[in-house]
Specification:
This protein has 220 residues and is mostly beta strands. It has a single domain (33-214), classed as Pectate Lyase C-like. Helices cover 7% and strands 29% of the residues. The protein is built from 1 helix and 13 strands, in the order E-E-E-E-E-E-E-E-E-E-E-E-E-H. The protein has one helix spanning 200-214, and strands at residues 20-21, 33-35, 37-40, 53-55, 58-60, 72-74, 77-79, 92-99, 112-119, 132-139, 152-159, 172-180, 197-198. Strands 1, 2, 3, 4, 5, 6, 7, 8, 9, 10, 11, 12 and 13 form a 13-stranded parallel beta sheet that branches. 42% of the residues are buried. This is Type III effector pipB2. It comes from Nocardia farcinica. Keywords: Plasmid. InterPro entries: 5peptide_repeat, Pentapeptide-BTB/POZ_domain.
Length: 220
């Protein structure tokens, strides 16, 4: 039976009027509230400690480094930016878009992604453990080895993504979560995917993981 393709349409970020260009070396971590700023070419820095709210801002070719905790990115755009290795635990991304960026090794535990699109982005080995995903779409992303343990999925779609070795132990598929045209080899914690919609071609990649989890020995 064909997978029911339920529509997932995250709200698009709203940047409002003209953005102010960040000055050389200006770090958004210097302020508790940032709005309407464009960070380019490595202008953005991140220094943890305070709660930061960033809204209606754009990160283009920027690199975020350091540590952020309990930060909120609301109506933000990340384009060709580098968040690799960033510690952003308990951080929220709301009505935001991430494209052609690098999130390798990102730590976003106990966070929130709501109304978010992630396209053509490398997020291998990223940790989303304990986070809540609602109305989120991943398209053409490298999520190999990503950690989705205890993640709550609600209206989430993965399309054309590499999920090789991803971890889904104790994940919760609450509503309308679909995997289409994804590579799902050596996935861990397959029971956490109970309730998801998976295309037949993707299920073939899951076969070995399913067999291993229920204790079936397969002779190839």
């Amino acid at each position: 039976m064909a997978v029911t393709r339920l529509q997932v349409t995250p709200a698009r970020p709203k940047l409002g009027g003209a953005l102010r260009d960040a000055g050389p070396g200006e770090a958004f971590g210097d302020e508790l509230t940032v709005a309407g700023v464009r960070y380019t070419g490595g202008a953005a820095g991140a220094e943890g400690g305070d709660v930061i709210a960033v809204s209606a801002s754009e990160f283009s070719g920027a690199r975020l480094v350091g540590s952020l905790t309990r930060t909120t990115f609301d109506n933000c755009v990340f384009d060709s930016s580098d968040l690799a290795g960033l510690r952003a635990d308990e951080t929220s991304f709301l009505e935001s878009a991430i494209a052609q960026s690098r999130l390798t090794g990102l730590s976003l535990t106990d966070g929130v992604l709501r109304d978010v699109t992630v396209e053509d982005t490398r997020a291998d080995l990223a940790s989303f453990r304990g986070s809540k995903f609602q109305k989120v779409v991943f398209t053409g992303c490298n999520l190999a080895g990503a950690d989705f343990q205890r993640v709550r999925f609600r209206s989430v779609r993965f399309e054309g993504c590499d999920l090789t070795g991803a971890q889904f132990s104790q994940a919760s598929i609450e509503h309308n979560t679909t995997f289409a045209d994804c590579r799902m080899v050596d996935v861990r914690g397959v029971r956490g995917l109970k309730g998801a919609h998976v295309r037949g071609d993707d299920l073939l990649g899951l076969a070995e993981s399913l067999a291993r989890e229920v204790g079936i020995e397969v002779d190839w």
